[in-house]
TrEMBL record:
<keyword id="KW-0808">Transferase</keyword>
<feature type="transmembrane region" description="Helical">
    <location>
        <begin position="21"/>
        <end position="46"/>
    </location>
</feature>
<feature type="domain" description="Phospholipid/glycerol acyltransferase">
    <location>
        <begin position="101"/>
        <end position="243"/>
    </location>
</feature>
<dbReference type="InterPro" id="IPR002123">
    <property type="entry name" value="Plipid/glycerol_acylTrfase"/>
</dbReference>
<keyword id="KW-0012">Acyltransferase</keyword>
<keyword id="KW-1133">Transmembrane helix</keyword>
<dbReference type="Pfam" id="PF01553">
    <property type="entry name" value="Acyltransferase"/>
</dbReference>
<protein>
    <submittedName>
        <fullName>Putative acyltransferase YihG</fullName>
        <ecNumber>2.3.-.-</ecNumber>
    </submittedName>
</protein>
<keyword id="KW-0812">Transmembrane</keyword>
<keyword id="KW-0472">Membrane</keyword>
<dbReference type="GO" id="GO:0016746">
    <property type="term" value="F:acyltransferase activity"/>
</dbReference>
Length: 316
């Protein structure tokens, strides 16, 4: 027993000593892959901007989307670059690259995005995000996302609308116009319904009724369905869990210590009663909030089960 403890202790010490080198390898790999593929996507955006011919733009978008999938493969490779990775994926989803999906996902870490990229690069359309307008100016990423037709959201406050009434509804109309481009390319739209990453501090401050989740923000999800609901083939309720650790999942990934990821995928049929005017129809708003809270209650139970599995893995 003492020998086993000494071996485990030595292994842990070696892992800590190697951690800075693994961080360097993963960071350089991720940064270089993002820069190279991002620049290639931006180069496609130049003729896309200069040649406003629908057929040409669709062809260029297809090429850009293929490069985006290559980036997804590169990010997926990070999970096994410096660590033996075990994926524990449960669910009933039979997914196809040539269909349209909306994802409802919990948000624990920035690693969540890479996890979804890993899933998408295998058997889903490449995902799109609704981005804040400010991200357009992020080096490489902003122009790359613009080339990929990701909608940049410019929300107007109540004060701005009160001063300029003509702005009311403009954000919805602009986003609908941008999302119309997704009709020609199979797409997965991702919604992190909590609106921010989960932390114990946020959980306590928001007085969340859920054990492992922050309260969901229904407006963004309802807005997505109002904008694109008739295009989606299904809703994917995806739950991601990492083994408990005092260190962030990003650090564990970069340092080569993230060995297990638990994912549950549940496919929900697209329903007409989930599409409506959330911001002006009070009856629909109440009904949609109840539906999303029921999903969140279900997700909370799934996280509890996955957390138990992650923290108590079977002995080999």
């Amino acid at each position: 027993m003492m020998d086993e403890l000494q071996i485990d202790s030595g292994f842990s010490m070696l892992t800590l000593l190697l951690a800075p080198f693994r961080v360097l390898i993963n960071f350089i790999f991720g940064a270089v892959a993002t820069a190279i593929i991002g620049v290639l996507i931006i180069l496609i955006g130049v003729p896309k901007l200069l040649l406003p011919i629908p057929a040409v733009q669709r062809g260029l978008s297809t090429v850009a989307n293929a490069l985006f999938r290559v980036w997804g493969y590169a990010m997926s490779m990070m999970f096994r670059l410096t660590q033996p990775m075990h994926w524990h994926i449960d669910g009933d989803a039979e997914l196809h690259r040539d269909r349209w999906y909306m994802i409802l996902c919990n948000h624990r870490s920035w690693v969540d995005i890479l996890v979804l990229m890993h899933l998408a690069s295998r058997n889903m359309p490449m995902p799109r995000f609704f981005l804040k307008q400010q991200l357009f100016w992020a080096p490489i990423i902003g122009l790359g996302c613009w080339t990929l037709d990701m909608p940049f959201m410019k929300r107007y406050s109540r004060e701005q609308i009160a001063r300029k009434p003509h702005l009311k509804g403009r954000d919805i109309a602009t986003t609908q116009q941008k999302c119309a481009k997704f009709r020609h390319i199979p797409t997965t739209v991702i919604n992190f319904c909590e609106g921010t990453r989960f932390t114990p501090e946020k959980h306590q401050r928001k007085k969340s009724p859920f054990q492992h989740l922050l309260p969901p923000k229904a407006g963004g999800t309802a807005f997505t369905l109002q904008t694109m609901g008739d295009q989606f083939d299904a809703i994917l309720d995806i739950t991601i869990v990492y083994p408990s650790s005092k260190r962030p999942a990003v650090w564990l990934l970069l340092s080569g210590q993230l060995r297990d990821i638990y994912v549950n995928v549940e496919t929900l049929p697209m329903r007409d009663d989930l599409i409506g005017d959330y911001f002006n129809d009070e009856a629909f708003k109440d009904r949609f909030q109840r539906w999303l809270n029921q999903r969140w209650k279900r997700k909370d139970e799934v996280i509890e089960k996955l957390t138990s599995r992650a923290d108590n893995p079977p002995q080999q």
